[in-house]
């Protein structure tokens, strides 16, 4: 049961914590969100889908901003109490500073649990879902953009001109004309009664399949050839014009602990270093533990920020956060360079 002093300390900490969480999340999430929205909205993505993408990008930022906001909230709240000499009054009443550990650690444990959930569950699922949504948007636009009686030249070296849409229940187009523009000294034209595009996201292949048509080619002046085909004629197109840079196969940051453990065992069996997977697992726990570390640091520093008040607490918090994460990133770089064990 929380006592009066516990509730009082929590009320002092929660408002600046929520404000800092909003500010830090906005700062970290805004650049990638705006970059993705600019690219997707320009391609005609509905605003509902754009809003869904924003939601999917939030957990990536929250994994870092919850510990950061906790530290700043603790420093501001405890610093305000110290600036108003409330900490001196508590000491005069016989209340030890260690007594404040109870409400401070209660908030830290809640923040650590929230961060652990974000790191272990929310981020892998949200990242993977985000990649799938973007992948689907950018790949599905191909057949939608290739319209009848309109030249389509987004594929390098090939220009497509479909005359009619496919019949109901079929994909692709009818009476398709394709021109190969890769060589200026010769002309190569394909004319087919049916044509469609086959996408393979896993293999990253884009194939133009034509059925029942002819291939016309020219070589030296006065020379030409015609090739008739009734079966399928397949042309491999550049996949980079269709597929985005991301791959829908789960990467290290999109995998859960249960999915990372077999990868570690497989890499060790092949004689490869699984340091990326090991660090990914450790990160899922080290960042939530930072909430507990920050709580102890904040209790020590917050009671000493007397005259600067809230501004001093914010400045000290930024300094501690900067030092903590610089050390973490340097250690990660050293592990990637095999200087220290992962």
Describe the fold and architecture.
With about 350 residues, the chain is an alpha+beta fold. The chain has 2 domains: about 5-140 and about 250-335, no CATH class; about 155-235. Helices cover about 55% and strands about 15% of the residues. The chain is built from 7 helices and 5 strands. It has helices at about 5-40, 45-85, 85-90, 100-145, 255-270, 275-300, 310-335; strands spanning about 160-165, 175-180, 190-200, 205-220, 225-235. Strands 1-2-3-4-5 form a 5-stranded antiparallel beta sheet, with no helix packed on it. A hairpin with a 7-residue loop joins strand 2 and strand 3 (about 190-200). The longest helix is centred in the middle third of the chain and has 45 residues, at about 100-145. The chain is elongated. It starts with a helix and ends in a 6-residue tail after the last helix.
Number of strands: 5
Strand content: 15-25%
What is the mean pLDDT?
A: 80
The strand line-up of the biggest sheet is 1-2-3-4-5
Q: Treating each run of at least 4 consecutive H or I residues as one helix, how many helices? A: 7
Summarize the biggest pleated sheet: 5 strands, antiparallel
Element order: H for helix, E for strand? HHHHEEEEEHHH
Structural class based on helices, strands and sheet pairing: alpha+beta
Number of domains: 2
Q: Report the span from N to C terminus.
A: 42 Å
Instruction: Supply Rg.
Output: 30 Å
Shape, per Cα inertia axes: elongated
Q: What ranges have pLDDT less than 50 throughout 5 or more consecutive residues?
A: none
The share of residues in helices is 55-70%
């Amino acid at each position: 049961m929380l006592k009066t002093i516990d509730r009082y300390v929590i009320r002092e900490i929660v408002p600046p914590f929520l404000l800092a969480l909003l500010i830090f999340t906005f700062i970290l999430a805004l650049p990638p969100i705006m970059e993705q929205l600019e690219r997707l909205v320009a391609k005609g993505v509905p605003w509902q889908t754009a809003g869904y993408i924003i939601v999917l990008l939030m957990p990536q930022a929250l994994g870092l901003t919850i510990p950061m906001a906790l530290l700043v909230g603790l420093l501001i709240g405890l610093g305000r109490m110290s600036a108003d000499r409330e900490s001196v009054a508590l000491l005069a009443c016989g209340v030890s500073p260690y007594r404040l550990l109870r409400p401070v650690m209660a908030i830290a444990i809640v923040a650590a649990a929230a961060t652990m959930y974000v790191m272990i569950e929310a981020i892998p699922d949200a990242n993977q879902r985000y990649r799938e949504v973007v992948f689907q948007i950018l790949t599905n636009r191909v057949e939608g953009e290739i319209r009848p009686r309109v030249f389509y030249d987004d594929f390098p070296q090939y220009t497509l001109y479909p005359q009619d849409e496919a019949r109901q229940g079929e994909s692709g187009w009818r009476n398709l004309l394709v021109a190969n523009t890769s060589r200026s000294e010769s002309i190569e034209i394909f004319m087919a009664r049916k044509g469609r595009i086959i996408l393979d996201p896993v293999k990253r292949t884009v194939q133009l399949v034509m059925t029942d048509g002819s291939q016309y080619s020219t070589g030296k002046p006065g020379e030409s050839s015609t090739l008739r085909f009734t079966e399928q004629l397949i042309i491999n197109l550049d996949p980079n014009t269709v597929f985005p840079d991301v791959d829908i196969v789960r990467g290290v940051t999109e995998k859960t602990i249960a999915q990372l453990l077999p990868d570690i065992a497989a890499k060790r069996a092949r004689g490869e270093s699984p340091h990326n997977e090991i660090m990914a697992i450790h990160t899922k726990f080290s960042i939530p533990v930072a909430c507990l570390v920050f709580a102890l640091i904040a209790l020590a520093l917050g009671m000493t920020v007397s005259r600067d008040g809230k501004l001093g607490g914010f400045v000290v918090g930024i300094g501690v956060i900067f030092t903590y994460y610089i050390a973490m990133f340097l250690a990660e770089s050293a592990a990637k360079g095999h200087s220290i064990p992962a």
